[in-house]
Design goal:
- By secondary structure, the chain is α+β, with helices and mostly antiparallel strands.
- It is built from 1 helix and 2 strands.
- It has a two-stranded antiparallel ribbon with strand order 1-2.
Length: 90
């Protein structure tokens, strides 16, 4: 029992030092500025859509979904430039 606890604590210490020394996945170093013409060639996005604003999101799960399944799916929506007319009296 004591040897298994010692092994567990040594593994935890090793894990902590490896995580602390590694780079953070959301650090500012991960931000990259792309030059014109680098994006869209492989993804199939037309050139006229590359300057449009987009909303990137992960869709919410329905109430019947549980666990961590379908977590890694992301969607991209292009923001529409057309102005929508709203009836002001409603």
């Amino acid at each position: 029992m004591a040897s298994s606890l010692q092994r567990l604590s040594s593994h935890a210490r090793l894990f902590r030092t490896s995580v602390a020394s590694g780079s953070r996945p959301f650090s500012a170093d991960a931000l990259v500025e792309y030059m014109p013409g680098e994006i869209g060639k492989v993804s199939g996005i037309p050139d006229e859509h590359l300057r449009r604003r987009v909303v990137i999101y992960s869709p919410a799960r329905t109430a019947s979904q549980q666990g961590s399944g379908k977590v890694g799916k992301w969607k991209i929506n292009f923001v529409s430039h057309t102005k929508v007319w709203l009836f002001s009296l409603l």
